[in-house]
Please model this.
Amino acid sequence: MHPFTGIQVTPKGVEYLASYVDTVRSIVGYDVAIAADHFGHIALDSCIRIGKALEPFTLAWIEDLIPWQFTDQWRQLTEAVAVPTCTGEDIYLTEGFKPLLDAGAIRVVHPDPATSGGIAETKRLGDYAQERGVAMALHLAASPVATMACVHLAAATENFLALEHHAADVPFWSELVTGLPRPLIQDGFITVPDAPGLGFGDINEELFREHLDQRDPVFFAETGHWDGETAHDRLWS
Ligand SMILES: [Mg+2]
Model:
């Protein structure tokens, strides 16, 4: 885990990261929120130095700098830098999030509703975070099915910030379900549908079958499929 690697960031590295963010900010301006993730397996002191260097760019949040299990290190990071801190994509159930929220250790809580416990449990977590003054962003890398579950969940909470999305460059993504606007995401927003259930008509099974991962082309595998080493169900990021 990060604190045990001995890896540190040099002043040159900190300067490089800051100039990278500076370039992105200067291109997109301040009408587009920017968040930053994947800082590497570095320990708290390097995280603080990077966080301070990123303060001038008013990021929406910095994410997963430290494994989520280290509540007190998250609190120290949050207190040391004037950039909102965020973690949660690997945490299961509201119970798992409570130590961070009760300690005031993060500014943004980041559950993945597909693995944090589903719609009702993540709504419960969102409300718990709201009572402690913490915003909620939803982690997600999924088809429109789980995305629409997140849309309803987000619409039902008051502290929702943003919903993650990894398919901006996948042209057929919106067509994986029927009965919703295409593209599903317009100007960065998804309209909450009025239809029953998750709000779409049906799944486009043929299109799903056409685009199965060819390394392992299984359509609705047995759940035991996720028990092996390749499941990549990480415990921390
Ligand atoms: Mg992440």
Remarks:
- The pocket of magnesium ion is lined by residues 37, 63-64, 89, 237 (CB under 6 Å).
- The first helix runs from residue 11 to 28.
- The domain at 88-237 is CATH 3.20.20.120 (TIM Barrel).
- The helical segments are 11-28, 44-54, 71-80, 93-102, 113-116, 118-131, 144-155, 205-210.
